[in-house]
Design brief:
The structure holds two protein chains of two kinds. Chain A has helices at residues 38-41, 63-76, 83-91, 98-105, 109-121, 142-153; strands at residues 58-61, 96-97, 125-128. Chain A is mainly alpha-helical. Chain A is built from six helices and three strands. In chain A, helix 3 (83-91) crosses helix 5. Helices cover 39% and strands 6% of the residues of chain A. By secondary structure, chain B is an alpha/beta fold. Chain B is built from six helices and seven strands; from the N terminus they run E-H-E-E-E-H-H-E-H-E-H-E-H. Chain B has a seven-stranded mixed beta sheet with strand order 2-3-4-1-5-6-7, sandwiched between helices. In chain B, helix 1 (40-47) packs across helix 6 (184-202). The chains are: A mainly alpha, B alpha/beta. Chains A and B meet through strand 1, helix 4 and helix 6 of A and strand 1, strand 2, strand 3, strand 4 and helix 6 of B.
Chain lengths: 155, 207
């Protein structure tokens, strides 16, 4: 089986950088092409163990810990890391939001959060919560708005 | 929020130096709302640095509405899809733009989608302004600041801004811009108008 070519340029791309999900087979299917029900991937769990992951929580792979876990996995079989876990760890070597990971895996957000929660709990993935914008909590930081404004002006 | 002087993760003494992982940027989100087919994904695509991505979620909803089976009290699970894009403002800050699902009765229930939004853009089409009423009501009721985009394909618009404002019953300080959401420049102007509006609100004491 050919490994995923995450991050490589795809010559098939039509004038744009392909999204990583476009470079791979859809992995909601197993080798026989049979659809795997999403909650099979989560081993029947339908709710994440943590509820602090949001659509825009940014995840970053803890390189050292993840490499060690992935190496252990290839020696001793799955060892608890499923294919989707491995794809997430590869994807998040560049920081990505929960929504982006879900889109790339082609899995519903709630299923993705369960898998992400596994990896955060194992210390293989770091989660950064979104910036607080609640007015009740002092409102939006003016420095943040100024930074957003500067960035948008360059569009 | 991390202070500029918060310590970076330090390797244990004697540990081999490892390549520092790319620091995670902070993220904020802006919601793009409006009736079905009004141009939400088009607007996301016009300003996003990536082709809009699609993701979906299962929502469990108490089954209400005209399609109910009489006497059946149950919960439905609905799959709702949304398109989103991103703008990397700086290495430390990313803005995500979420086009809300066309059927408001679903996205209103998607708490993760609407909680913590910096603000919103409501797109309205002058030929069917009523399709955007629900989005405006929703942002107002949740206290989410928003601006209104009047989408005019081919600049086809026969109504004055005053007429549109009156028809939408817009608060006087809510910014309203008229343009073509397919144009990147209009998308940028909408986002800038929203940020300016947020700055105005931030300068106004709450209550």
């Amino acid at each position: 089986m050919v490994g995923p070519h995450i991050g490589e340029e795809d010559p098939r791309a039509r004038g744009r950088t392909p999204h990583w999900s476009e470079l791979e087979e859809p992995y909601a299917e197993d080798e026989t092409g049979v659809m795997v029900r999403p909650y099979t991937i989560t081993r029947g769990r339908t709710a994440p163990e943590r509820d602090d992951l949001t659509l825009i929580t940014v995840l970053t792979t803890a390189e050292e810990e993840a490499d060690a876990a992935l190496a252990r996995g290839s020696r001793a079989g799955a060892r608890g890391l499923q294919p989707e876990h491995r794809l997430i760890l590869d994807r998040c070597r560049r920081p990505a939001a929960v929504a982006e990971v879900a889109a790339g895996l082609d899995l519903p957000v709630s299923v993705t959060k369960i898998l992400l929660g596994d990896l955060v709990a194992q210390g293989l993935l770091k989660a950064r919560a979104p910036l607080s914008v609640a007015r009740a909590a002092g409102g939006v930081d003016l420095g943040l708005l100024t930074a957003v404004r500067e960035g948008l002006r360059r569009l | 929020m991390a202070t500029p002087h918060s310590p970076a993760p330090v390797a244990a003494p004697g540990a081999a130096p490892v390549a520092a992982p790319a620091a995670a940027p902070a993220a904020v989100k802006i919601l793009i709302a409006g009736g079905f087919g009004v141009g939400k994904t088009t607007l996301v695509g016009s300003v996003s640095e990536v082709t809009p991505l699609r993701t979906e979620e299962y929502l469990t909803t108490a089954s209400v509405g005209v399609d109910d089976l009489a006497g059946v009290d149950q919960k439905d699970t609905t799959t709702v899809a949304l398109d989103f894009g991103r703008i990397t403002v700086s290495p430390e800050l990313v803005v995500y733009l979420f086009g809300t699902p066309g059927q408001e009765r679903f996205w209103f229930m998607w708490n993760d989608l609407v909680n913590g939004a910096l603000g919103g853009i409501v797109i309205a089409d002058t030929r069917r302004l009523d399709t955007s009423f629900a989005s405006i009501d929703f942002f107002e009721s949740r206290g989410i600041p928003f601006v209104v985009a009047i989408n005019c394909f081919h600049n086809h618009n026969t109504r004055t801004p005053e007429e549109i404002r009156a028809a939408l019953d817009l608060d006087p300080q809510v910014p309203m811009l008229i343009g073509d959401v397919r144009e990147r420049g209009f998308g940028r102007d909408l986002l800038l108008a929203l940020v300016d509006h947020l700055m105005d609100l931030a300068a106004t004491p709450v209550g």
